[in-house]
Specification:
Rossmann fold; six-stranded parallel β-sheet; 13 helices; 13% strand; globular; binds NADP nicotinamide-adenine-dinucleotide phosphate
Length: 284
């Protein structure tokens, strides 16, 4: 399977370490990114580059996409030099971006018309897990296509699991990120509440991390709060986007609604900072 030629689209915070895993695993990898310069990091470890998505798909067996949102997916598929303009067939296209189930269904339909196959395969985990190859990958789409793609996905994640037909991976991801938004806001509120009552943030976080509530998330984001470091690992604008997509799916629970409102309000000023910068919003 390591002879499978892989095309990678999207070299953002996640796309770079994820594609690096595949190069390190010995796959021939060709990369494309909209803005130029980021490809150099991949070229330095042996990847080749393609000038457009259309040229990329012609060279490879399997294409993986890791870009921001529905608009980016639309541009990658339907743009002038987009994937669909190449009129290929027999390719597997895996969209690992966090996007709506609706755009996955639309793109899967267009891929099938050309004789290509589409999987939605968003990930849980952040930059650290991408660097370690330990992401959790949830997949929607045809079962036999998933089985073909699984060895590649298992180089990126510690778990690659099919949860249903096209769009099911995206739906599962939006459920998980709703929980993530609630978690981040909950942690931020606990720290603010503690400080308002004379308990230091560092002390609170030490107690929480040693209690049954401790988790990798609270450990990593607690350190960010302690160090006053809000550089984005997972940009706040992305969780604001994900909660909007969850709303479109019908999210209406009390905590889900609260997280939706908080992150929409925070996005204009804190969008480029990390998700846990929400502490600045709830502590205002
Ligand atoms: P990022 O650092 O903001 O990178 C976004 C990528 O998308 C860049 O390569 C960007 O290209 C490309 N892009 C954006 N709009 C485009 C367009 N219209 N056409 C073509 N390319 C476009 O994002 P990220 O943090 O890697 O996240 C990528 C996806 O993974 C998102 O859907 C996010 O929600 C999801 N995710 C992120 C994390 C995390 O912790 N960061 C975790 C799980 C899932 P340019 O370089 O040209 O701007």
């Amino acid at each position: 399977m390591s002879t499978t030629k892989i095309g990678w689209i999207g070299l953002g915070k996640m796309g770079i370490p994820m594609s690096q895993q595949l190069v390190k695993a010995g796959y021939p990898v060709s990369v494309y990114n909209r803005s130029k310069g980021k490809e150099d990091i991949l070229r330095a470890i042996g990847a080749t580059t393609a000038a457009t998505p259309a040229l990329l798909i012609q060279q490879v067996d399997l294409v993986i996409i890791m870009v921001s949102d529905d608009k980016a997916i639309h541009d990658i598929f339907n743009g002038e030099d987009g994937l669909l303009s190449a009129k290929t067939s027999g390719k597997i296209i895996i969209n690992m971006s966090t996007v709506s189930p609706a755009i996955s269904k639309q793109m899967a339909g267009l891929c099938e018309q050309q004789g290509n196959h589409y999987l939605d395969a968003p990930v849980s985990g952040s930059v650290k897990q991408a660097e370690d190859g330990t992401l959790v990958i949830m997949v929607g789409g045809n079962e036999s296509v998933f089985e073909q793609a699984k060895p590649v996905l298992e180089k990126i994640g510690r778990l690659a699991m099919r949860v249903g037909d096209t769009g099911a991976g995206n739906t599962a991801k939006l459920v998980i990120n709703t929980l993530l938004g609630i978690y981040a806001q909950g942690l931020a509120e606990a720290v603010v509440f503690a400080q308002q009552n004379g308990i230091a943030a560092t002390d609170l976080l030490t107690l929480v991390n040693n209690s049954a509530l401790g988790s990798p998330f609270i450990k990593i984001k607690g350190e960010a709060i302690n160090n006053d470091n809000y550089n984005a690992a997972f940009a706040l604008k992305h969780i604001a986007k994900d909660l909007r997509l969850a709303k479109d799916l019908g999210l209406s629970t009390p905590l889900g609604e609260a997280a939706f409102e908080t992150f929409q309000q925070a996005e204009s000023t804190l969008g480029e900072e990390d998700i846990i910068a929400v502490i600045k919003e709830v502590g205002k």
